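Q: How would the C-alpha cells look for this protein?
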Amino acid sequence: MLDFDPGSFLSQSETARMGRSSQFAVAATSMALEEARLEPNSLNPYRIGVVMGTTMGEPQILEEGIRGIYRHPGPEGVPATLPRRYPCNVISTNVARRLGARGPLSMIPTACAAGNYAIGYASDLVKLNRADVVIAGGSDPFSRIAFTGFNRLLATSAEACRPFDKNRDGMAVGEGAGILVVEELEHARARGASVAAEVAGYGLGCDAFKMTIPDPAGGGGIEALRRAISTSGIEPGSIDYVCAHGTGTRENDKSETVILKNVLGEAAYTTPVSSLKSMIGHTMGAASAIEAAACVLMMRKGTILPTINYSDPDPECDLDYVPNRAREKELNIVVSNAYAFGGNTSSLILRRMRGEA
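A: Here is the predicted structure in C-alpha cell form.
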C-alpha cells in the first residue's frame, strides 16, 4: 500500500514505536470501529478482546536490524528500541493498547490461514461468554524476506496473478490488514448496531503433507470445509458463493478445486467461486481477514467480485470462477477458504443477517 499514511491514524510517537504491520492493524481497526459505530470507551474494557493473525509479524524490523549490523557490526548496529517492535505478539498488543482493551488477547501465527483462525477463535470467545466484543483479523506488511523466499520457491508470477487459469504461474505478494468486529448479537442490538453478518461456523484442518505444497487430494482442506459446514448447520447446496484461497499457483488452485468437488458434490459446478488475490495480491496472514470483510460487503451489495486475468480454462480447474467481470447475485451464505504453509487449512462460513444491514 504505497499510499498508506500512518499519520492519518496514529500520532508521531505511536508511529515511531510500531512496525508497519502494527500500523496496518491499528488503522484497519479504526476503520472497522467506525463502520460498526462502536466507541470502545463506552464498553467494559475487560469484555473487549483482540485476536490477530499473521505470517511474518514485523519482518521489516528484522530487516532494519540486519541492515544496521551490516553498517555497524556488533550490538551498536541495532537500535535499543528495535527489539521491542519485532515480536509478532506486539501487533495484537498495539491494537489492544490503542483501544484500552483488557479482555482476551491472542496472536495466531498460522501463516496465510491466520485471518480465518483469528475470526473463528473470536467467535468462540463470544459464544463462550468470555468477551462481548472481539477485534479480529490479520495483518502483514510487504517483506523482502517473504518476497525472496517465494521467488526461490518459484511461486511468484512473472507477469500477473491468474488464479485457476491454465497458464497460471504463481502469486503476487501484497500487504495490508483486515479487521472484523465480532460481537455478541444481543449486545450489538442493545447499542443499536446494524449487524452485517453472522459468523455461522468455521472449520480447521491440517494436510500434514509437505511444508510448502498442499495435499493433491485436498485432505486438510476437505476436513476444514466439512467441519465448517457441520458447525454452521447448513447444507452444502445452500452455499451461494465461495471466496477461494486461489493463490494462482498450480498446485494450490488444483487442490482447492478438488476440495470443493469432494465436499460440495454436484453443487460445486453451480456455486460461483472467485479469487480476490487476482486483484489485490496475496497479503499473507491478512489475506483471509481482508477476504472475510470483502465477503460481508459482497453480501451487503449482492455482488460477487470476479477472478481477473482469467483467459484460458484449465481442464483440472473446471468450476465457475466468475471470470473477469463482477456478477450480481443475492448472497445469503458464503464460504471463505484459506490455506497455509505447514498444512494449516481453514474455512469460514458467513451468513447475511436479513433486515439488519
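The chain has a mean pLDDT of 93.

The CA atoms of residues 26 and 97 lie 10 Å apart.

Upvote if useful.
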